Amino acid sequence: MKNILKILLQIFFLWVIFYLGTWVVKLLLLPIPGSVLGLIILFVLLSTGVIKEQWLSKATNPLLKHLSFFFIPIAVQLMEWSDLFMQKGYLLFLPLVVSALVALLTTGGIVQILTKVPQEKKGVISLVKHRNDCFHY
């Protein structure tokens, strides 16, 4: 019973953050979805350590485990719109390709920045990794 109560409280907390994002978007008339702002708020709270990951793990782990099931309603809805995609699908092609490339390049750039090794340590790390034949800098 205690475990179920923890899970419910954690889900309620996630809902509060989602609702906070939605409320801020409506209040400030921001051009982004409230759920996206809620995710940004959650990210900031987790990154700064205001919220610990362990405080939400009992609720989030099962949700992440079954994440693919949440895409089924979207796929069904897209199948219902197949006529629209057959007629006007070419209009979606360019924005999809451009947005995918932007996401790919942005992610790659961020990973490159975050994984840079300081110059003074680079020689030692390169020597050790070269010796193991795993990585080369």
Overall description:
This protein is an all-alpha fold and 137 residues long. The protein has two domains: 1-65; 71-137. It is 77% helix and 0% strand. The protein has helices at residues 2-28, 34-48, 57-65, 72-80, 82-88, 90-114, 119-131. Helix 1 crosses helix 2 and helix 1 (2-28) packs across helix 3 (57-65). The longest helix has 27 residues, at 2-28. It is extended, with a radius of gyration of 22 Å.
How do you describe this structure in short?
The protein is mainly alpha-helical and 137 residues long. 77% of the residues lie in helices and 0% in strands. It has two domains: 1-65; 71-137.
Oligomeric state as shown: single chain
Q: Return the string of H and E elements.
A: HHHHHHH
**Radius of gyration based on Cα positions:** 22 Å
Please give the number of β-strands. Answer: 0
Mean pLDDT: 84
Proportion in helices: over 70%
How is the main sheet built?
Answer: none
Shape field:
extended
Which terms would index this structure?
0% strand; mainly alpha; 137 residues; 77% helix
Blueprint of the fold:
Elements: H1 2-28, H2 34-48, H3 57-65, H4 72-80, H5 82-88, H6 90-114, H7 119-131
